[in-house]
Amino acid sequence: MSVALLVFAVWAASGSAISAQNEPGVIGDYTGTFDGVHVVRLHLSLTPAGALTGTFDIPDQRESGDSLEDIHFDGQTLSFAITRHYDGEWKGTLSSDGNTLTGNFVQWVGTMPMNFVRFIPAPKPSLVDGIWLANISGSGAAQRVQLIVKSDSAGNEFCSMDLPDQHILHIDCAQPAFTGGLFSWDIPAIHGHWSGKPSADGSSLTGTWSQGPSEPLNFQRQTGLIPEKSVPPPAYDAALPPVPIDQLQSVLDRDLAEALKTGELAPSTGIGVSIGVVGHGIRRIFAYGAAKPDSIFEIGAITKTFTGLMLAQMVAQGKAKLDEPVRQLLPPGTVAKPDGPEITLLDLATRRSGLRWEASNFYSRDLKDPYADYTAAKLYAFVHWRGVQKRADVPIRNSELAFGLLGQALADRAGVSYPILLNNEVAVPLGLKDTAVKLSPEQQLRLLAGHDEDRRPAPAWNFDAMAGTGAIRSTASDMLKYLEANLHPETLKPDADSPIAATLPAALVQSHQLQADISKGTRIAFAWLYDTETGDYWQNGATGGFSAYAFFNPTGDYAAVVLLNACPGANGVFVDRLGLHIGQRLAGKPAITLAGTESSQ
Questions:
Q1: What pLDDT does residue 156 have?
Q2: 324 and 203, same structural domain?
């Protein structure tokens, strides 16, 4: 059996240093309620540098482990922001005995009381309290499940789950209960439920895991926590002289042999990869596994580079300005003009808007198709509540919301939907016949079946207002045309009868202009990330059943795209490794190995 988990990006918490005498007053685990119904967990601790940090969990919803931001504690008053899923702020006070936090949570839907009670361990542990370990088997190597159970002085049970071999830690259980000798708990994000009984001597937990079919899952008591599995350094194949494009397939045939036989692309998996490469005017397209050269894939966040190009196009056509406030493109009355700086179109395209990962009113009814029901009306409602002010100290922050808002705003300015805008501004001028948000019946037949992180069938994702962040489907051939245009904008021949096509060369050049530093060695253009060491412009993406990687290197005059009908799994991001491998082969450098199960880089 296997345990499948939805993994969401979480930013490192930032905190303010607190003095040593304050540590006993606020550090600890707390429990409260949200809306008077949902249990809320608050975890506060210190970093090695002495800064206050923490996480916020609602175990019976999918949100788990949201990092706290802007934490402040003066010995009595505590405040923190939660921006990952809620875009809200909590502020309150610590009681004199240090056992309660009393305050309010302010969010887009309003202000609500939210009080927390410190966890006080039971004087005598229950029979199920402790650290437990089970082993599961899935599509790959055996995986360990670690369960940490504790009870409080009122007799309430608490538990959390770790998957140390997958580097997934601190998943809070929902509704843990130990009554009548039966112990049970849920993991709602994956619709999982465990129930069973402890042995008479308390050395084991025997029970079943239900996530669809029920299967045995038994735990053994441990004397201590097992460490997270270390990430081995990547292995590299020996460097070859720079591989010419017309010889690359034979090199990849050898380099992918193990993956094709027993690994990611084995016949039993139903997974395939389409690859497009171009260099010095020579282009090749080939496929492995279940894919064909004309197979259609979801490209995920690579969509953002198209949205960035659409912005550059509309700027080149005089339909928008880079420094134009996004507020001015939205329907009249959507959001008021703020006092001071506000979010511009360029901010949205370059991670400088300060917007969080998702809007706080983003609650999907279907986790298998999470963006389908997030409409423009919901997006406008969130923007109206949040406002468009831009903080002076705005952090560089990756945001699905930012590109969703940018795509919707550009569509609003053009008076068409995002799919039509994509077609008009990019697909038709570049001759991309299989690049679209909505597929024709014939194209639908070529859309490969997706696979989730546990390599089970996964449905395609659909987008509404968030289309600009991940809605595009495409083929290796179309993506190669797109990359060739990025590689050599000067070679495009504008259509004299198409003002839209005529602006593409200048728009492509504009979209490559580097705007900010993301991290050491990485800068950002219009969604494209730039590696200062290799000279690659690159972007990757993933949906619930697909992953993709694309890059182009103007200095080396080569580009490639890798499309896979599986999302990142326990063995890391396979398309990233393959994309890096191809770039290293083209550059004549040691190439990250494609054999085995190295973790994501």
A1: 84
A2: no
CA distances from 50 to 13, 70, 71, 75, 88 (A): 13, 15, 13, 15, 25
Contact 99, 115 (CB under 8 A): no
Instruction: With CA atoms as reference, report the closest residue to 542 among 512, 519, 574, 571.
Output: 574
- Any domain includes 435: yes
Look-up of token digits 């253009």: 525
Cα atoms in the Cβ-side hemisphere of radius 13 Å centred on 515: 22
Three-state DSSP state, 156 = coil
Q: Domain span at residue 167? A: 130-222
Please give the Cα distance from 56 to 23 (Å, whole number).
19
**Residue 2 covered by a domain:** no
Residues 6+ apart with CB under 8 A from 110: none
Q: Are residues 342 and 296 in the same domain?
A: yes
Q: How far is CA 136 from the centre of its chain?
A: 25
As a dihedral over the C-alpha atoms of residue 356, residue 362, residue 367, residue 373, rounded to 10 degrees, the angle is -130
What does pTM read for this prediction? 0.76
pLDDT over 70 percentage in the chain: 88
168 and 311 housed in the same domain: no
Q: Which residues pair with 178 in a beta bridge?
A: 183
In this prediction, residue 138 has a pLDDT band, given cuts at 50, 70 and 90, of low
Residue 354 and residue 479 in one domain = yes
Is the four-CA dihedral 469, 532, 249, 254 of positive or negative sign? negative
Contact at 8 Å (CB) between 115 and 102?
yes
Buried-exposed string 298-323: b where 16+ CB fall within 10 A, e elsewhere: bbbbbbbbbbbbbbbbbbbbeebebe
Asked, for residue 228, whether it belongs to a domain, the answer is no
Last residue within a domain, chosen from 83, 118, 153: 118
**Count of residues making up the chain:** 601
Answer yes or no: are the C-beta atoms of 502 and 492 closer than 8 Å: no
Classified as helix, coil or strand, 477 is: helix
Tell me the pLDDT tens digit for each residue of 433-479: 999 999 999 999 999 999 988 888 999 999 999 999 999 999 999 99
Q: How many CB atoms lie within 10 A of CB 200?
A: 8
Task: Report helix, strand or coil for 283.
Answer: strand
Helix 574-587, helix 248-255: angle, nearest 10: 130
Calculate the dihedral angle through the C-alpha atoms of 115, 118, 123, 126, rounding to the nearest 10 degrees: 70
Domain count, the chain: 3
- Of residues 121, 126, 123, the one with CA closest to residue 182: 126
Please state the three-class secondary structure of 200-266 as a single string: CCCCEEEEEEECCCEEECCEEEECCCCCCCCCCCCCEECCCCCCCHHHHHHHHHHHCHHHHHCCCCC
Does some domain include residue 445? yes
Whole-angstrom distance, CA of residue 115 vs CA of residue 39: 11
Structure tokens at 2: 């296997």
Tell me the C-alpha distance between 160 and 518, whole Å: 33
Contact 382, 446 (CB under 8 A): no
